Amino acid sequence: MGRTFIRQDAQIAPSDVYDDTIPPTLAAYETNPANVEDNLNHLRSQIQNFLNRNGASFPSGNWYADLTQPTALENGTIRGIDATNAALHAIEKKRVLRDVFRVGIDVSVTAAQNWEILALGELPTNTTAAVGAVTTKGTVVAHHAGTFGTHSLDEVAGPHALNPKNLLTIVDASSGDPILSDGRQIWGLIQSETATDGHTMTGTTPNRAQISFVRPNATFDDLEACPVVDIAGKSINYATRERVSLDALTEADFLKGAVTDIGGGAVTPTRQVAYDNQGTTPVNVTTNAILDLEGAGLEWQVRDDLEAILFRIIEGSAGGTSKVAVEDDVDQFDVDAVESDFLNGIKVDTGAAGTTIQVGVTANQIDSGGALTVATGGTGDLKMDSVGGEILFDDTNRTGSTWTATAVKLSETTAEWDDYETEFGEVSLFNAIVQASKKAARVKAYAQLTSNVSANTNVTGAGGSPNLDAQLPDYSGVGTFVDDVDVYLNGELLRNGANAAANHDVYPGTTPANGDLMFEFGLKGTGSKPDQLCMIVWGS
Predict the structure, then answer these.
(1) How far apart are CA 226 and CA 35, in angstroms?
(2) What is the DSSP letter of 15?
């Protein structure tokens, strides 16, 4: 029988559908696939699951997408599986130091010396010596470069001069308290007899270890030998620093934080000492800082130099009386925030009855406990602008009146603004009221002709040659002569014209302020019945 060869490049077609959204199950991935395309899609989906899964649901995304750079807190490194394996190893094996207290072993310092060689039973719990600036796991020690069995300042450099890595915490064996020298705490430096890194301390030559006792110098910028008189003959306990890998830490290692040198003159690390040592250097907080007031009525206060309270936080959660108070000894409370947000409104001037002003305590409302004056400073304007609604006026007298609406409106419709402008112009309310009062006023006067007057001759009761026995009213301030002046001749209402060209009965004379008129016809002023004039001026 002839052999049949399947050529992948010629006889197996590529997948038609690139599906990477199939959640993993036995049936989906193992039992039900019917062809190579199904198998490839299941592999793609599992790759997608490996790359992007983050929660209970099958992930979105594409199996062929590149890895995403992590950016939380700061930009990170894109890592494949092998790089992730290496990074995880680096984390697990990262070297860290922890304090190990030598429990139940009292070390007696020999009289007349400020150092002590440790016997076998007095050695640190971990007897592997990590000597010098190395990464060896074990108890961190410095090599004694001089004559072993004498005091030495040999150290393994640490975060700063007062905190080398081979520094020991020293306490009194009976009380557990720090031991002081001239008000400064006594520490120890553990040193090895041999410089061989990783050797085992045995208590016998050449693998012995000793403690050289030290204290901060007077300027607190380095360590110096502790005077013999302050440590000789003491019975002490000590804590060493052990180097371990991160994956070797136990949960108990996090119960004790780093040991901090608080400086001389302080038996206990009080806040006053911490503040004094901090000086003017800012405290850089890289995590949340929380102060709990755990008790009803407890206060956190900030006071001035005379111990007057400036600021208080008062715990009252159980009774709904928690309070943040800026007290009356504060001369100025200055808020320069871009935006000040008071969720439930504000109250001001609450010191006396009837003076409180509330803004927003009742939603969308300003209230006052007594009389309220709204005033602007200097030459500034006061503007009332209801952009989305109307301006309403109300007072206590409306309640007892027959007025049925809740208030008086500034305007009812847009047309009222147009009518106002047409009647009075864009003028003030006072101007409009004055105009309205003038338009409503009426002045009426009578006069009799004293001589005959030809047509288009000035008729006046004023001046040096009057032809009327009385002066008629001033109509110079009316809107128009045609609309606002009524002229009667012998009881007949005449038709007014703006001027002679109108060819009506009467038109303005030489001086309107004197009530002068001119007529299109002659008037009679002689005989027993001279012509009578009556003029009514509206809004003069």
Answers:
(1) 83
(2) P
